Amino acid sequence: MKSIVMQILKGEMTAEQAKTQYQIDRETIRRKINEFVQEDSNFLREYVEYQNRKGYDYGKINFKGLIIYIIRNDLSQSEAAKDLNIPSRTISRELEKLGESEDEKDIKLYEIAKICAERKMKRIPLNEFEKALYTRLLDEMFGDVPVIDIELKSKTELEIERLEEFMKEVQYLQGQGKTAKQIVSEMHTSISTIRRNRLKLEELKNLSQMRQQIEKEQ
Fold first, then answer.
1. What does the pLDDT profile of the chain (218 residues) look like in tens digits?
2. Is residue 129 exposed (0-12), middle (13-18) or buried (19+ Cβ within 10 Å)?
3. What is the Cα–Cα distance from 8 to 18, expressed in whole angstroms?
């Protein structure tokens, strides 16, 4: 099964071909991809590349899980970025968000990650006690956090939701008989912004439908 999944991720075989040739249903393939990605860095790397080729947002990476993965595997952020073909600044930005969190566990993760990153920069490896300590802390605070979360919404999906909410408010005010001038005043926006958002929403929905159709055909 691992060989089949790897061929799919590398683009050597489509999920539809695997289904026909090996009589494996699509849900089993999806479940196995997620399973192998969580336990094997080679599958994780290929999965991210697979999703990047399709234009998704870094394969729906759960960055909290990725930062834990980096610590547990004694990697630097640059090593993880290079290995997974993710901009290093993206990982750094996501790490800084943890430092701004109101959750004490997130802040502790941020502090551990910063210590490990500094030691990496100074080329001072963690000793066995430190590795055991951080591993125990991460296990106690987070347990098994997936690096890939297939339920995460992509940036495109989140933007569609934001634009839909915006347009719903416009339509609601229109339904109340408000004029264009009254609508832009109440929403603190402009006619041109409403027009741009409407066109952007249509564009993103069409793009999303195209991607879904491609996935069905693969």
1. 999 999 989 989 888 888 888 888 878 888 888 888 878 888 888 888 887 777 666 767 889 999 999 999 889 999 988 888 888 899 999 999 999 999 999 999 999 999 999 999 999 999 999 999 999 999 999 998 888 876 667 777 888 989 999 999 999 999 999 999 999 999 999 999 999 999 999 998 887 777 666 555 55
2. exposed
3. 8
Q: Residue 61's beta-bridge partner residues?
A: 148
Other beta carbons less than 10 A from residue 16's beta carbon? 15
Place of tokens 């995460």: 152
Question: Number of C-alpha atoms within 13 angstroms, CB side, residue 20?
Answer: 7
Q: What is the pTM of this model?
A: 0.66
Which residue's structure tokens are 């990982």? 91
